[in-house]
Design a protein that fits this description.
The chain contains ten helices and 15 strands. With 340 residues, it is α/β, with parallel strands linked by helices. The chain has a five-stranded mixed beta sheet with strand order 2-1-3-12-4, with helices on both faces. A five-stranded mixed beta sheet has the order 7-6-8-5-11, sandwiched between helices. Strands 13-14-15 form a three-stranded antiparallel beta sheet, with helices on one face.
């Protein structure tokens, strides 16, 4: 019996990255049962810079924070397919590599995460302040279905994303932004433990893939969700997602016909066309993954609608454009030209 061919999927080692790689592994194994698909963890620059603010990327941080080392392993043939969160993948790829496929997109929305008013009331009652000092923050909690525009005055929101920072301040000029890093579980714990900020923002796709759920009463439940956490899905028309948010990307070598065949089989064409439009917009704007630029495309039949914004200029500029699925790249470039 011939030896089973093995293909290696390269990924970061975070819980979310591993879950995404496992999903890709399952899709590949189902479509190509004669192949064996293994997952290899590769540590990236971004994993080593957990204390750095992503809002500084492109200024004090290198590009390709979460992809460079994986791409090198791919080019060096240490792995056969690189699995990325598409929103982390730069629009300019190495000459010898290409974006071969995109899995069906999960919910691209952002989610506002905050403390429950009832939980805060109970926590304060059980932990009364015995000695108050000037400037000491008061922990705040809120009711269900609170959004950015309905938060009480002077909200403090923790996010290190330039895109999220810019949109929050556009919606709420009275907001204060502070940086935060870490995986989903870490950020949830920081929210509970730190009265210095009122809320944070996470990607809906990420929390869903990690098996967190938003109940009808607004409570966030999950494997590492602390008591007292609430969540509200933000309207993507108001808080425009990051380019590629919610999509898993597969990157391969240009000359590898085997992996090209695998990727072609599991590619989701409507999603690929939508993210192609978004990435074309970002590229034409001259921005990178961590720029204050957002774009979200939706496939409707044989057409795509793209809504985007750039905060790279003093005054934010919004644009909405439509085209056919086959015109995705040009759609993104046309939208960017309207911002000039």
């Amino acid at each position: 019996m011939p030896e089973q061919k093995t293909l290696t999927l390269g990924t970061r080692g975070s819980a979310l990255a591993l879950e995404q790689a496992r999903q890709v592994q399952q899709l590949c194994s189902k479509s190509f049962p004669s192949y064996k698909f293994e997952v290899k963890i590769i540590k990236t620059t971004g994993d080593k810079l957990q204390s750095a603010s992503l809002a500084s990327a492109g200024k004090t941080l290198p590009k390709g924070l979460f992809t460079k080392e994986i791409e090198k392993a791919l080019a060096d043939k240490e792995i056969d397919i690189a699995v990325h969160s598409l929103k982390d993948l730069p629009v300019e790829l190495p000459d010898e590599l290409n974006l071969a496929a995109v899995c069906k997109r999960a919910d691209p929305s952002d989610v506002l995460i905050y403390r429950s008013a009832k939980w805060v009331e109970q926590f304060i009652a059980a932990n009364p302040v015995t000695e108050w000092s000037p400037g000491q923050p008061q922990m705040r909690g809120f009711k269900k279905n609170i959004s950015i525009d309905t938060l009480p005055e002077n909200p403090v929101i923790a996010t290190s994303s330039a895109r999220r920072q810019s949109q929050v301040l556009h919606i709420r000029p009275d907001a204060k932004i502070i940086p935060i890093r870490g995986n989903v579980a870490t950020r949830l714990r920081k929210l509970i433990e730190n009265p210095e900020f009122d809320a944070t923002i996470l990607a809906a796709a990420g929390i869903s893939r990690l098996k967190y759920r938003i109940r009808n009463d607004g409570t966030l439940t999950g494997p590492e969700a602390p008591d007292g956490i609430m969540a509200f899905r933000l309207n993507p028309e108001q808080m425009i997602p990051a380019v590629g948010q919610g999509a898993i990307a597969l990157e391969i070598r240009n000359d590898d016909k085997t992996t090209a065949e695998v990727c072609d089989k599991i590619n989701h064409f409507p999603t690929l066309q939508c993210v192609t439009a978004e990435r074309a917009f970002l590229s034409a704007c001259g921005g990178g993954c961590h720029s204050a630029i957002a774009a979200h495309a939706v496939a409707m039949g044989h057409k795509i609608k793209l809504r985007a914004v750039s905060f790279e200029t003093r005054t934010p500029k919004f644009v909405t454009e439509s085209a056919t699925l086959r015109e995705a790249d040009q759609l993104g470039r046309n939208a960017a030209s309207r911002l000039a």
